[in-house]
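dude i think i finally got it to work??
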Amino acid sequence: MLGQLIVSGLAVGACYSLLALAMVIIYKTSDVLNFAQGEMAMISTYVAFTLMESHHVPFQWAVILTFLFAILLGASFEFVFLRQAKEPTVLGLIIITLGFEMILMGFAGWKWGPDQRSLDFPVSNIETYNLFGLVMSKINFWTIVISLVLMFILFLFFRYTKVGVAMRATQQNQLAARVMGIRTKWILSFTWAISSMVGAVAGMLIAALGVLDPTMMMDPLLKSFASAVLGGMTSLPGTAVGGAMLGIIENLFGGYVSLAFKSVVAFAVIVLMLCIKPSGLLAKHYVKKV
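look at this
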């Protein structure tokens, strides 16, 4: 039982990590917490569902078109709403993301209704693999594999590409970045686009593990935020580790203590981490002198 709980917890935790990484990518570049991240992922997942169910688009093409939609959604939101805000503060920008979250949720409820649906994923959630005596469902296995591959690509991108370095420079000092020739406005739009695409992957995996409905991302978003706080809001590896830890911890808590209080674990993690180590497990703590 212990092994099964850990494996299923890793699969869910991988989804938390992806959604948390999407939030952290934006936070590292603009210091803005995007609380519309979950609903952006949910809308993208509905786009994939509609393409496959209503228009009979093959899965691989539906995924590609969904990624393009997610990229356009993220870049458009940054350009239309955030960039046009007059003398914005960080708090003001966060409130704009909350408003966008409610708009997307209301639109999804109007367009697709409240009914729960299933996403036609090419991997079965019933069939299993037997790995060294441990039985693992195929959907859990591929969720972990896809998440790890995408995380690895993101780490390489931020560490070794010029665009990744420009994104980090923009976060540290936008004025200095512009003086050095970095097109910061383009970087911000690109950041939101990439973040939205990563969120779309998380949304499709979460729908494949569970069900698709307009409220499907509310709980994962809060737990992804807890994962980011646990690992460190400025650390991509920390965020990935935080998601995996949270998924395993809450699954063990639900298996051995009580399912009724399973969702409380994420909030307990936030409170404890902010009290013990506010910067997170792997992020550096900076002290400003004034």
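Strands lie at 128-131, 134-137.
im so relieved honestly
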